[in-house]
Specification:
Layout (H helix, E strand, L loop, with lengths): L9 H25 L24 E3 L15 H4 L6 E3 L11 H16 L8 E2 L6 E3 L2 E2 L5 E2 L20 H4 L9 E5 L15 E5 L36 H19 L6 E6 L3 E7 L3 H10 L9 E3 L2 E8 L2 E8 L1 H11 L3 E4 L2 E4 L4 E2 L5 E8 L5 E5 L7 E2 H8 L4
Parallel strand pairs: 10-13
Antiparallel strand pairs: 1-2, 3-6, 4-5, 7-8, 9-10, 11-12, 12-13, 14-15, 16-17, 17-18, 18-19
Helix pairs in contact: 1-3
Length: about 400
């Protein structure tokens, strides 16, 4: 069939194929006209309201064959008319006397096209006649299949591996906060690559309360409770002497810290097994005199000067307290220089040039003379009463202000 075909170039192939397809189309149209199934445009109105002389045939696509399907657009509408060369009627069986031009030309074109072209992305897609239809002759699916490509049955996609809720679980009561979770085996499902299957859980409602009556409170036994055990003096463990002795200073130091929390002159309060130590940085003589009164230092007790500090020892509830007051020696020296007739006693400086008041509010004045021991002598104001040494007055009626 291809003995006279020119394979010299692409244009020659296209012209040869177009010429042969045109002859096939003309032969097909002539065959339809000869059988009376092709109507002219003007004769369409004459057939209105008239039934067909024979029942309609089922339209089926041609069997796939290798041919120049992608070269069909080279034909114009004038050459093909209103003909669909790829569709035949099932009842169109050529008679014995019908010309064989259509079959011969189609075979030659198919044989020629199979040698030079192959199905590509522009191939004609026709519906698959083997698929079922939903109504009439229209297939259920509209998927186009390329001519010459084998058809594969669609495989349903596997179900995702996700938890599936059983219909019976939907009808159960809403979950209760007290419900517990219990793992149950999951139904078989299609597994996907990389999928994670989660265990199913079923909520169980809490068990109904028991119908047994509430337990009754038991009667209290008439037996008396056992008396607490008391230990005798011999059974009590003795407190170590070091612990008992250290308890006083430690507790006293803690109490002094609380009582002096707001005083700015306090720098440190310590405690050991024997005594309490109080360290201050006096801002004035009033700070020094306050702590002399707190630790119970007698007014006539002499103090000790150590460097820039004045040191004295007193007692609180039988516990020894040592006071170290920095800057007090300087403050005492400054006060002595400002007084007219200063006299220092018990860590205090008294001005004998003015009247001094005892703790009872009585006024005492200096007589201008001293005793044999060098202690100044004072007497009540307005009297020539017996003179009294300053040390004795401070010890019995002091401190003086």
């Amino acid at each position: 069939m291809t003995g006279g075909f020119d394979f010299s170039g692409e244009d020659g192939v296209e012209r040869e194929l177009a010429d042969r397809l045109a002859r096939v189309a003309r032969a097909f149209v002539a065959e339809l006209r000869a059988e009376g199934r092709l109507m002219e445009p003007g004769a369409a109105a004459l057939g209105e309201g008239r039934r067909l002389e024979r029942p309609p045939e089922r339209v089926v696509p041609l069997a796939p064959r290798q041919g120049p399907a992608h070269l069909q657009p080279v034909l114009s509408g004038a050459e093909l008319g209103a003909v669909e060369p790829e569709v035949r009627l099932a009842s169109d069986v050529p008679s014995a006397g019908a010309p064989k031009v259509f079959a011969q030309e189609a075979d030659s074109v198919s044989e020629l096209a199979s040698q030079v072209v192959s199905a590509g992305p522009d191939a004609v897609f026709v519906p698959d006649p083997a698929m079922p239809t939903d109504s009439g002759d229209r297939p259920v699916h509209d998927t186009a299949v390329p001519v010459g490509v084998p058809y594969f049955e669609p495989v349903p996609a596997p179900e995702p591996a996700v938890p599936v809720m059983s219909p019976a679980l939907v009808a159960e009561a809403p979950p209760d906060p007290a419900a517990r979770l219990e793992p149950v085996p999951a139904p078989p499902a299609g597994m996907l690559r990389g999928a994670i299957t989660l265990p199913h859980t079923r909520r169980h409602a809490p068990a109904p309360p028991s119908e047994d009556p509430a337990p009754r409170p038991q009667a209290v036994s008439d037996h008396p409770l056992p008396e607490p055990v008391t230990l005798t003096d011999d059974e009590v463990l003795p407190v170590p002497e070091t612990v008992e002795r250290a308890g006083g200073p430690v507790l006293l130091a803690a109490r002094l810290r609380v009582e002096s929390a707001g005083r700015l002159e306090v720098t440190q309060i310590t405690a050991d097994a024997d005594r309490v130590g109080v360290h201050i940085h006096a801002l004035g003589l009033a700070d020094w005199e306050y702590w002399l009164t707190v630790i119970g230092v007698p007014p006539d007790v002499r103090t000790l000067r150590v460097g820039d500090a004045e040191v004295v020892t007193g007692r609180i509830e039988g516990t020894e307290v040592r006071l170290t007051a920095h800057e007090v020696p300087r403050l005492l020296d400054d006060a002595s220089r400002t007084l007219v007739t200063p006299y220092r006693l018990g860590g205090r400086v008294y001005d004998l040039a003015r009247a001094l008041a005892d703790r009872h509010g009585r006024s005492w004045r200096y007589l201008g003379r001293d005793g044999e021991d060098g202690m100044p002598l004072l007497a009540l104001s307005g009297t020539d009463g017996p003179p009294m040494p300053l040390g004795t007055l401070v010890a019995t009626h002091g401190p003086l202000t």
